[in-house]
Every structure is written in structure tokens, then in C-alpha cells.
Design goal:
Order of helices and strands of chain A: HHHHHHHHHHHHHHHHHHHHHHHHHHH
Protein name (chain A): ABC-2 type transport system permease protein
Largest sheet of chain A: none
Shape of chain A: globular
Oligomer: heterodimer
Keywords (chain A): Membrane, Transmembrane, Transmembrane helix
Largest interface: A-B, 46 and 51 residues
Radius of gyration of chain A: 28 Å
Radius of gyration of chain B: 19 Å
CATH class of one domain in chain B: Alpha Beta
Strand content of chain A: under 5%
Number of helices of chain B: 9
CATH topology of one domain in chain B: Rossmann fold
Protein name (chain B): ABC transporter ATP-binding protein
Keywords (chain B): ATP-binding, Nucleotide-binding, Transport
Shape of chain B: globular
Largest sheet of chain B: 6 strands, mixed
Number of strands of chain A: 0
Distance between the termini of chain B: 58 Å
Structural class of chain A: mainly alpha
Helix content of chain A: over 70%
Order of helices and strands of chain B: EEEHEEHEHHHEHEHEEHH
Organism (chain A): Nonomuraea terrae
Chain lengths: ~600, ~250
């Protein structure tokens, strides 16, 4: 059984090998080698093993279940017990790059043991092996547990909490380190009590000839593995026997907002979307994850009396909420056909989704921004916080529809989902990073103006940055939404095919490169990269002129000129900026059009 | 018959995916006011052809006309006359049946009152009222077909294109659907259905087309296509497949 499943897994792995996987494997191997090289003490190993374990526990939720394509449902018809299935699937789980990489990393325990003599080295071999089995098994059990919990909104929210806390702590590791040293917490002492370190404890005890402790730690590992295997078998049984799927919950009634939406196409889309936001546990999970991540990220520094993060809470939540919505069209799956059957509805579909997202996200995040900035007592942060909040809302509302239309991902249709984000959700890591990066790019112009205002100590300039953020934010939402619905209008059937089958029929037509594509991209990049600087220079110069503050920085070069030329130069700079932006938008539109063309003409 | 209006006209439709051609220059004419059956073996290209005929899959070449309007050139006009039930595509799954119909009706530009009346009538007629509070994701296969049919009927189309409308539907519901479709045709509407149930096609349809290997192997009035035998026999003859299980599988007995 195990051999058959392993072979099946390897075939599936071979079929799905892509660049992303290769990059991931390379990075994983580098990390494993680092563990191998630097894992010279029990303390370091304890931290490293804890890190690897957290990776295995959190990973599946972001990368699509981690079952490597071997869904337990495939094997329901086979005459075997859940326990046999669990054992077989566990064996197959080792036939993957993740397990191999982890084995390399955990081999550091053997190296560590060998340094402390032969007995310690010998103990290290089974200890390291048990540690690898433990993390892989624990990862599967967590996926199974998620399926149990994530069937209600409350469950989704509960699951989001620990995940968000872990990711926030990982992305804010400096603060965690400061907190640990400040409160004099010897974290490695604590870590040794965790199962991720029991192998290390056993090896260390063997080195010290403390055989009772060595044996206890090893037995502890084995007992834990057996218990987890039993738990996984039980969870698998519940999953494949349909216990989880059978429960259908009735949706709760509509909120005040939904009941008062206008009876128009736009209102209908908004009502549908708002209902989805409250009824789809995958969406609920993404939303609660965004809130929890933002709160953890920005409240955690309070532990070390740092209030600098507070003002950005709302913006961070908005950022993450946009990232979670980057698969908006994909999560609806093939239901897109309904929009395609109603020409002209594409615009309402896109705009309705944008408005619904804003209605969902804006009230809470704006409150966070205002409350956070107020409570922080950092008066200088007001313009920056408001500007970032405004631009994140606008750019987020624009980019989520744009990305989900441009980069559709095939997901199981809603009625075929298990309700488990770790099993249903595709690998969206790339999309999430793209969204985070793109919003940052969108925020650059207004952020630059606010920062310039702070540096030059000009209040008016800082608030000009807020105004710019509001205007550009609205612009992004409008422009990106427009590109998205134009794309739906020109290439809707192709998008539907992608969502239906996972690949596109026009691939062979695209094989012939669109002429001028590279040049157009370069033009767009150059224009967007440069366009904000003349505008900033003009704004700074104008403010200096208006407030009669002498300034001789590079940015205020028009003031170096003879008085008669100053204002005309400023106007010329503004015009130049606008021209560059216009060129960028025009080129982008042209690019989108030509891309859609090869798919268009049936004679 | 003379010059008759065509509800649906497919001309030289071609479609290929990655490495294989699925539909080879398919042409079909569905006279207005008829009940038209589309049959063919598995993988013959029925669903692909119907997807192209309804604007859900862009053909590599060829034209589709709905009452003379080129669907791929003037989709707004063509699709307004078209009601579609695709095979196995999702709906807004988190909404209840009534919410789906309301959403779609408003998207079609119907007024709130008209949508409410039609939704109620369709839900009652198709027996979906008991599942009033169940989201579509929780529907059975047959209920999904029925709510799909309701979405196809909602805006009052002139032509219905239904992919496997009777699959997984219980006999009582199937009778209801047949009655609805029959009445639709009797009042001037046109229907195209694809199905694997030959008996059903023989009972319902005046015209049939047999699609084999992405081409029309035979098309016309039912009598002409089936000739002296049954549609079943004609189908097997046209698809060029004999019943191949004459020997083998000897281990399959106890």
C-alpha cells in the first residue's frame, strides 16, 4: 500500500514540477544546510527545530494542504481501515521535497550527537528520524483539525488567531527578540520542553550518560507519534466518510446594509458579495486573519513600550485584507459564466465587488487608524497614517479585482469544497506578495510627499500628501477596476476556461509574442518610476514659494532660478508629471488591448 | 417548409485544445419553434459545441447566430434572447435559490417586483420552495439542475440551450421540466437539449443531430435521422461503434 501511494505521489509530483517549486526547494535546501552548519549547540538546535516545526504547522494553510495531490477521498473505495490509509499516506508524505529537505536539516542532530561521542551519535539517529516523522505527522493532523474547526465563521476566526500571531511574530522578529531580552526570558530553556526539542534532549542526555532522561525523551517521541497517527486516522475517517460535509448550515439573515441596497445590477452584485463575505468561511478566514495580523503586528511592540506601530494598524489590516481578496474571482469559480451570459454586467460585477469590499473593510480599518494614531500620542504620524490608510483602501480595492482577473487560479467550486482552507485553498503565496508589493508601489508618491513634509518640517506639505493619497487612491480603484472589467469584456470566455480547466486555450496563440510588448512594459515602468518626482519637486517648490521659506535642496531647484522663471518651471514640472502618468496609462491600456486581441477574432 | 427562421445557426465551428482538435468545422441549423435534440458519444464535443454556441467558449473559427444575430460580434443582442443551462458550472453557491434568482434578475435589468414574482413562480413550479433557506452549495445534483433551469428561464428568453437538463433529476421533476419545456415550445419558444437518454430525446424532440468526433454525423427531422429503426440503433450505427464487449472480463463473476 505504502509503496503504491508513494509511487503515485512521485508521479503527481513530477507532473506538477514548476519554477516555483524549484525555487522553493532550493531555498529550503539552503535553510537546511544552514541548520546543518550552524546547529552546533543544543540551544541553537532547539530554536532551529522549533522554526522548522512551525513551518510545517503553518505551511499547509498557505500552500494548499500539503497533501501533494494525494487526496484521501481518492481512496475511500478501497477496502482498508482509516488507520491503514493514514499509515500509507504518511509513508507517501516522505516521498516529497519537503520531507527530504527537513531530513537534511534534522540530520544536524546526528552531527551534534556524534560530536559528543559514539553513544550520543547512535541515539541521535532514531531521535532525528522520529523528529522528522513528528513534524510531518503534526502538519497533517493540523490540516485535519482545521477541517473540523473551519466550518463556521467563529471557527474561521479562531483558526485565524494563532496563524496570524505566528506570522506577525515572524515578520516582526526584532521586536520579539527585544522583548525576550528585556524580560530576561531564557527562551531556549523553555523550548527544550517542547516536543520539537525532545530529540535534542535525548541526545544531550546520552552525552551526559543520563540514560533515564534519554529513554524518557525517546519514549515520549514515540508515544506522541502513535497518538498523532491515531488522531489523524480518526480525522481522515471523518473526512472521507462525509461526516463533515453532511452538515449544511442555513445562512443567517441579511444585515441592515444588504437590505437597503438599491435594486440595480450594481446593488445586486454588492448584496451577493456582502453575503459571500459573511457566509463563505474561506473569505471569513482571510478577513479575520487580516484583522488579527494587523492587531498582533502593531500591538506587539507595546510590550517593549514602543507606540510607533499603532498609527499603522488600520493600514496594515487593509493591506492584508486586500491580499486575502486577490483571488476574489477564483473563489467564485466557474460561476463567472453567469456574468458572461449578461453582456454589460461585467462592469457592475467588478464595481460591485469593489464597493462591497470597501464597505466591509473601510469602517473598521479607518477606526483602527484613527484610534491607533490617537492612542499612540504621536501627533506627527497623523498625515502619514491617514495617507497610507487612504491609498491602501483605494489601491487595494483596485488591485484585488485586477489581480484576480489577470491571475486566475483554479479552485474547487464552492459546492465541492471541504470547507477547509488548507485543503481547498490553492497556493496563493505569490499573489499575496504581489499584492503587498503593488500596494506599496501605489503608496510611494503620497508617502514621498508626506515624508518630504516631515523632513522639511512643512505641515502643509504633509497634508498635501494626504490629499494626494486620497486622490491617487480613488484613481487606482477607478483605473484598476476599469482595466479589470475591460479585461472581462474582451477575454471573459478565456478566464472562464482557466477557472474551469486550469489552463488556457489561447496558449498556443500567445506563443507568438505580441509585438512591442517588451518595449511597452519598459515605457510603463519608466513612466511610473519617474512620474512622481517632477510632481514632488513642483509641490515642494510651490510650498516654499508660498510660505516664503528659503530652500536650496535638489528638490526645490526651481527656486534657484531667476524669480520670473520659478512659477513657469513649477507648472512645467506638474505638466511633465501628468504627461508621464498619461503615457503610462495609455501604454498600459494598449498593452491590455493587444494581449486580448489574439484571442478575439472568430471570423 | 420553405424559408424558415433559424433560432440557432452554427457554421464551421472549430475548436482545439493544446494538442488535439475537439470540434472540426461543425455546422448546425435549429429551426425556430422546434424542440431540438443533440446526441453523441462521450467526448464527441457536445459540451464544447454548446459552450461555443452560447458564448462561454470562444471558438477558434466559425460563426454562431442566434435568430440571425452574430453571437460573437453582437453578444448583447444575441445573449438577451438566450437562456442557458451549462453542464457542471458553479452558481453563486453561498446564496439561497431565491437569492440567486433575485441577483440574476437584477443583473438582467428586471425590476425588483418582476424579479420577485418570477422567482416565486419558478421556485414553486420546480419544487424548490422547501429548500428555501438552503444555500445552493447544499443542493443535491437534481436540485442544482432545477435551479440552473430557473436561471435560464428567468429573463424570458426565446431560445433555451440546455446541456444534459435531465441528468440526475428524479422522474417527477423530469416530468415537470418536460412540461415546462413543452409549453415553452408550444408558445413559440425554441429549445436545444443535449442528452444521453435516447428514449427521452425520441419522445420530446422533433429534430435531432448526432455529433460524432466533433462533426455532425446526421441532422434533421427525427424520422429522417432514425430511419426505420430506433434512435438508439441509428446512434450506434452513426457513431461507428459496435458493442465491443463480446468476450473478456471472464474474471468478473462469482
Amino acid at each position: 500500500m505504502a509503496v503504491v501511494l508513494t509511487r503515485m505521489r512521485l508521479v503527481l509530483l513530477w507532473r506538477t514540477t514548476n519554477v516555483l517549486l524549484i525555487v522553493g526547494v532550493t531555498m529550503g535546501l539552503l535553510l537546511a544546510l544552514a541548520t546543518l552548519i550552524f546547529g552546533v549547540s543544543a540551544d541553537i538546535l532547539a530554536v532551529a527545530f522549533a522554526g522548522w516545526t512551525i513551518g510545517w504547522l503553518l505551511g499547509p494553510l498557505f500552500t494548499g494542504g500539503g497533501d501533494g495531490g494525494l487526496r484521501p477521498e481518492y481512496f475511500t473505495r478501497l477496502p482498508m481501515t482509516a488507520r491503514e490509509l493514514a499509515t500509507g499516506l504518511l509513508a507517501a508524505a516522505f516521498a516529497g521535497p519537503g520531507a527530504v529537505i527537513t531530513a537534511v536539516a534534522f540530520a544536524s542532530l546526528v552531527v551534534f550527537g556524534a560530536r559528543h561521542g559514539v553513544p550520543a551519535g547512535l541515539v541521535a539517529v532514531p531521535a532525528a528520524a522520529a523528529q522528522v516523522v513528528l513534524v510531518i505527522l503534526a502538519s497533517r493532523v493540523v490540516v485535519g483539525l482545521l477541517g473540523e474547526v473551519m466550518r463556521t465563521r467563529l471557527g474561521a476566526a479562531l483558526v485565524a488567531l494563532p496563524w496570524a500571531a505566528a506570522v506577525a511574530a515572524a515578520s516582526n522578529i526584532g521586536i520579539v527578540a527585544i522583548a525576550l531580552t528585556r524580560y530576561d526570558l531564557h527562551v531556549t530553556d523553555w523550548l527544550l520542553f517542547l516536543p520539537s526539542s525532545w530529540g535534542i534532549v535525548a541526545v544531550q542526555a546520552a552525552a551526559d550518560s543520563d540514560w533515564a532522561l534519554c529513554l524518557t525523551a525517546l519514549i515520549g517521541l514515540v508515544v506522541l507519534i502513535v497518538a498523532l497517527l491515531a488522531a489523524w486516522a480518526r480525522l481522515l475517517d471523518r473526512r472521507v466518510s462525509g461526516v463533515l460535509a453532511r452538515r449544511t448550515r442555513h445562512p443567517s439573515g441579511d444585515g441592515l446594509l444588504v437590505r437597503h441596497l438599491p435594486a440595480t445590477p450594481l446593488g445586486a452584485v454588492m448584496a451577493k458579495e456582502l453575503r459571500n463575505w459573511s457566509r463563505d468561511t474561506l473569505r471569513s478566514y482571510n478577513w479575520y486573519f487580516a484583522i488579527a495580523f494587523g492587531l498582533f503586528m502593531c500591538l506587539m511592540p507595546l510590550v517593549v513600550d514602543l507606540t510607533w506601530y499603532l498609527p499603522w494598524t488600520g493600514a496594515v489590516v487593509t493591506w492584508m485584507a486586500a491580499a486575502g481578496a486577490a483571488t476574489l474571482f477564483s473563489t467564485d469559480g466557474t460561476a463567472l459564466w453567469l456574468t458572461l451570459m449578461r453582456p454589460g454586467a461585467e462592469r457592475a460585477d467588478v464595481r460591485g465587488r469593489q464597493f462591497a469590499w470597501l464597505l466591509k473593510v473601510a469602517p473598521l480599518t479607518v477606526t483602527f487608524t484613527i484610534a491607533g494614531t490617537g492612542l499612540s500620542g504621536l501627533t506627527w504620524a497623523w498625515p502619514g497614517a491617514l495617507a497610507l490608510q487612504a491609498v491602501a483602501l483605494g489601491a487595494g480595492a483596485g488591485l484585488m479585482v485586477l489581480l484576480s482577473v489577470m491571475a486566475p487560479i483554479r479552485m474547487p467550486d464552492a459546492h465541492r469544497r471541504t470547507g477547509n482552507a488548507a485543503v481547498d485553498g490553492p497556493n496563493i503565496v505569490g499573489l499575496v506578495w504581489a499584492m503587498i508589493g503593488l500596494i506599496a508601489v501605489c503608496a510611494l508618491p503620497s508617502a514621498a510627499v508626506v515624508v518630504a513634509g516631515l523632513v522639511l518640517d512643512m505641515i502643509a506639505l504633509q497634508w498635501a500628501g494626504v490629499a494626494l493619497a486620497a486622490v491617487t487612491g480613488a484613481g487606482y480603484a477607478w483605473l484598476f477596476g476599469r482595466i479589470a472589467y475591460r479585461r472581462l469584456q474582451t477575454a471573459g470566455p478565456e478566464l472562464l476556461l482557466r477557472l474551469r480547466t486550469g489552463h488556457s486555450a489561447v496558449a498556443r496563440q500567445r506563443a507568438a509574442p505580441v509585438p512591442g510588448q517588451g518595449r511597452r512594459r519598459l515605457v510603463i515602468g519608466l513612466c511610473l518610476g519617474i512620474a512622481w518626482s517632477p510632481l514632488l519637486s513642483a509641490t515642494l517648490s510651490l510650498i516654499s514659494l508660498a510660505t516664503r521659506t528659503p530652500s536650496r535642496t535638489f528638490w526645490t531647484f526651481p527656486l534657484w532660478l531667476a524669480p520670473a522663471f520659478r512659477v513657469p518651471t513649477v507648472i512645467a514640472l506638474v505638466a511633465l508629471s501628468l504627461l508621464l502618468y498619461a503615457i503610462a496609462v495609455r501604454t498600459l491600456m494598449a498593452l491590455v488591448r493587444t494581449r486580448a486581441v489574439p484571442a478575439v477574432p472568430p471570423r | 417548409m420553405g424559408l424558415m427562421e433559424l433560432a440557432l445557426e452554427l457554421d464551421e465551428l472549430r475548436m482545439s485544445f493544446a494538442d488535439r482538435t475537439v470540434v472540426h468545422g461543425l455546422g448546425l441549423q435549429v429551426p425556430s419553434g422546434t424542440f431540438f435534440g443533440l446526441v453523441g458519444p462521450n467526448g464527441a464535443g457536445k459540451t464544447t459545441s454548446l459552450s461555443m454556441a452560447t458564448g462561454l467558449l470562444r471558438p477558434d473559427a466559425g460563426t454562431v447566430r442566434v435568430f440571425g444575430v452574430d453571437l460573437w460580434r453582437d453578444p448583447a443582442r444575441a445573449k438577451a434572447m438566450l437562456g442557458v443551462l451549462p453542464d457542471d458550472l458553479a452558481l453563486p453557491e453561498r446564496l439561497t435559490g431565491r437569492e440567486v434568482l433575485t441577483y440574476l434578475g437584477l443583473l438582467y435589468g428586471l425590476t425588483e417586483q418582476v424579479v420577485a414574482e418570477r422567482a416565486q413562480e419558478l421556485l414553486v413550479l420546480l419544487g424548490l420552495l422547501e429548500a428555501e433557506r438552503t444555500p445552493v452549495a447544499g443542493y443535491s445534483a437534481g436540485m442544482r439542475k432545477k435551479i440552473g433551469l430557473a436561471t435560464a428561464l428567468l429573463h424570458g428568453p426565446r431560445l433555451l440551450v440546455l446541456d444534459e437538463p435531465f441528468e440526475a433529476v428524479d422522474p417527477i421533476s423530469a416530468a415537470t421540466i418536460r412540461t415546462i419545456l413543452r409549453r415553452f415550445v408550444d408558445t413559440g419558444g425554441s429549445v436545444v437539449v443535449s442528452s444521453h437518454e435516447m428514449a427521452l430525446v425520441e419522445r420530446l424532440c422533433e429534430h435531432v443531430a448526432v455529433i460524432v468526433d466533433g462533426r455532425v454525423a446526421a441532422a434533421g427531422p427525427l424520422q429522417e435521422v432514425r430511419g426505420a429503426g430506433s434512435l438508439d440503433e441509428a446512434f450506434i450505427r452513426l457513431s461507428g461503434a459496435e458493442n465491443t464487449v463480446t468476450e473478456g472480463l471472464s474474471w468478473l463473476s462469482s
